[in-house]
Specification:
6-stranded parallel beta sheet; Rossmann fold; 17 helices; 7-stranded parallel beta sheet; alpha/beta
Amino acid sequence: MSPHLLYVGGEDHHLRIPFMLAMRECGFQATAAGSGDSTPFRRAGVDFRPFKFNRYMSPFADWTAIKALSTMLRELQPDLAQSFDTKPNLLLPLAARAVGHPAIVRTITGVGWVYSSHSALALLARPVLRALNRAAAQSTAATVFEIHDDQVFFDSHHMTGKNGLVIPAGGGGIDLEGFRRALVERPPAAQLREELGLGTSPVVITVTRMTRGKGIPTLLKAAALVHLARPDVRFLLVGPRESEGPLAVTQAEIDKHAPYVIATGPRSDVPALLGLADVFAFPTAHGEGVPRVLLEAALAGIPIVSTSMPGCCEVIRDGWNGLLVLPHAPDALAGKIVELLRDRKTAGIMAARAEELVAQKFSLQMIVSRYVAFYGELLAGNSQLDTAEGLSEQRAPELVR
């Protein structure tokens, strides 16, 4: 019988569908549980179970979510369950402890706002989050990190538990063929430009949650500075705002920069929107894992300027395949955006290098290979998983083509 995998995530869990389908082609049975829309899973033929949870601190909601996960584990009885995102990484191990089953894998996709912010609320939340992660680690068979820095951080605070290892793009890697097909099959650029009110203007795009921790206030200040030098440039902000709670920027903050800043909200046609852009700006002040949006922007051939936060530096090497600036530095961000718009030849050379690096290091095929080897050892009861180096040399017998 095929090993049964349960993947638990949040609203963006649908982005891992290509990974789940690839694991299925490698002989695994995959079920997804998440807080987002079931439609993409249903269309892809992936079994999906709705799982609602509160992304913020809410003891009653958390207890309800743990009970729901415990019930799901009893019903499905998967051989292995893997969580993504901060809250599921805490809830799933606690739910599994209640039922004594199955093997649990946490996926750390960055240390996030609590450890990146110096606000009073973040400082107060840190010891609580450390205690919860230590409790979760006791019921975790392995913890996957996207970058080495995060593993070092978790190890230093005794939050890793057994079997910590690094798999780049631990969220599943990028389906190169599928993404490039989406770029080719997108609607005509003129149609999208008219819909969004972009005209023939150069476009600077970001795709992220519209929160302070993701650097949106910094990007808005940079947009104002760019507008003084290049009034023809338009900024396209793609991603959710209304669902982001107290950390979200306000609509009034965005409206202040109209008409040169356009916020679209969440969109399902991100590859098509990336195809319109001249520059991709990623102003995050969060400790990221490996940001998927940087991988997608690179594959779309867009010159990138990003902050030099952990995770971003796994993708962008300053001056070689993109530009890096410090977080909370709107002057520097604006200057690098103008530089990329002005020197299109150099920008194009860097963009091509970024595309090549992503294809070589973060492809779905490569990440699936690592996971097949990892799951095989974990399900066989092998506890010698302290590093990912040995696993990286092993190839899956059947990989998605």
